[in-house]
Amino acid sequence: MLSDKYVWLCTDACANNHIFTDPETGKVDEKLRNKFAGMIGVKYETGHGKVYREFLDEWEKEDPFLYVGAGKRETSHFAPYAHDALYLYLKALYYASAVPGVTITTSGLVEAHKSANVSVQGLTGFVKMDDTGRERIRVFDIVNLRYDSLRADFTDFVIVGKWNETARYNGEGRYRDEIDRRFEFDYKLQFRDGTYDFPDLDVRNSFKYWSCNDGEEKTDETGKSVRLEKPDGQGANNIDKDYRCDEFIDCYNMSDEWGCPVSFPVLFIVYG
Q1: What is the CB-side half-sphere exposure of residue 87 using CA atoms within 13 A?
Q2: CA–CA dist 126, 99 (Å, integer)
Q3: Is the pTM here over 0.70, yes or no?
């Protein structure tokens, strides 16, 4: 199924270089990587912005023996989201605990978020919980495994665009029910054949048919170029091959019965 007849769409579970990289040596399996060329993936936008860069500055200095994954200027894909979620939780806990005599529950923390309009500039961008209970607007990266990135010795997926979900506000600054959802592409998608032309995904099996006009059996290799007609006496031309030699005259010129073991056209000529 890894051929020009297919376009692979993948979530963040496989839209990364781990699918063709040895986890122990980090070596890229070029043969396997080439098989996945043209794959399109969707995954959560990674950490970004000033706060994220400052976090990486500190993370790079940490001891990897004390903190798994530290010492490098990168994190796991979900680490920034876990960081921001925990940070929001602690802020909600702070607001909830400030009310004397209140028993802190999960629902109480949610209400604390909503009433205090808790917001934070996190590792994943601006995160806010307003009084509608909506936590944040989702943003996904659209990624593409491209041949041109391979030639540039870049063996990972390339971000070519984003899927954005944007809330509209009413006059009071609260979310409306309408949410704008849209794709925004910065670069064209590159497909398995190395081009930027959308492939024809309407792949069908070839079939044989009988051409009344030409008096011969033909093959539609695409499976969709020829439209088969019913031999209903309306001058059908391209008919199913099974009508050939079925002892019924189906073509206007009787070509479907010429040369058959029992030739009805000959009988018509002989006996009128």
Answers
A1: 18
A2: 27
A3: no
